[in-house]
Amino acid sequence: MGVVPHARQGHRGAHGAGGALQRDVRRGRPQGHAGTDREQRRQPVPPRHAGAVPLRGQAVTGYFGKVSTLGDFVSRGLPDGLVAAWDAWLQQCIHASQQQLGDQWLNHYLTSPVWRFAIAPGVLGPEGLGGVMMPSVDRVGRYFPLMIGAVGAPPLLDWFHKHVAWYDAVEDLARASLDPAFGLAQFDGMPEPGVAKDAQPVPVNGTWRFALDANVGERVAAAALQGHGLWWTAGSPGVEPTMLTCAGMPRAQGFAAMLDGTWH
């Protein structure tokens, strides 16, 4: 996993997310354990309002994780296989970071930043995924991040450069879930990023061919990032503004640094 400085996109910083979660949990909530209980059932979710159905070929925004007003996992709108792969990866990350951070894990988790991500097809399944991951907690004090994301397959850097407004909007929705009056109906009509769901072209006999024009650099970068993920954050009190790039998902043993900013 590589770490590169994050050039700000012009969106608001992520500095409030961890602090907001910390205030919510400290305000009399029971301090339970991280959400590693696989026996927890997913919260039944009403169907998406008919007016929010996207046009054919566009990505659909969904979510998975914990919200502060409910006691179970919530999930809607994302492929089951993708959700299962995300859940398995995050369970490993939580376990590894707890082992590394020990008694300090909760403090670092509560003040960790919102991470935005773009994950190529073939990493979590045949679909690509772009979205946000925010530290969260359920009603009974079990800690597990909330992810809001959309399935799509544009070049990874397109997520970063061309969909800032969408990332801002879904991050606002994630933050809204920390409000004591939050209800799942607030997720109705979630914005869609307007990215194509179709897969990108593939090389022939292991070789890419590009037209030598003004956009060749973007296409070469897109080819080089196949099978990779981009993760970026505006930071938090303990984590500097950063972009990560990695083959596949971030390693579980490196997840603690995404919470406390200690990069090795």
Automatic annotation (TrEMBL):
Q: Where is this region: Disordered?
A: 1-52
Gene3D superfamilies (alphabetical) = pa0076 domain
Superkingdom classification of source: Bacteria
Instruction: Spell out the Pfam families in the cross-references.
Output: TagF_N
What is this protein called in UniProt?
A: Type VI secretion system-associated protein TagF
Give the organism the record lists. Answer: Massilia cellulosiltytica
Gene that this sequence comes from: tagF
